[in-house]
Write a structure and sequence with these properties.
about 70 residues, alpha+beta, two-stranded antiparallel sheet, 2 helices
Length: about 70
């Protein structure tokens, strides 16, 4: 997520939509509990059309209750 944000702000800023606001570092992600659940960024735009796309963050983590992950 951080590498993609940096790439879009440095390389494609002139031709692409802005990256939605996200936490600045991993400690903020952990503190906010975002590493435990799916999170939507960019779903509260202030402009019409939206100034940035909707981004869905799906953490690569086991279930919070300690059970085995389920894959299908």
């Amino acid at each position: 997520m951080f590498a993609t944000r940096n790439r879009t702000t440095e390389v494609t800023a002139a031709v692409a939509q802005r990256f939605p606001p996200v936490p600045d570092n991993l400690s903020d992600i952990r503190r906010l509990g975002l590493s435990l659940r799916t999170t939507f960024f960019g779903c509260d735009p202030t402009q019409n059309p939206p100034e940035f796309p909707l981004m869905i963050y799906i953490p690569n983590a086991p279930p919070a209750d300690g059970s085995d992950p389920v894959t299908k």
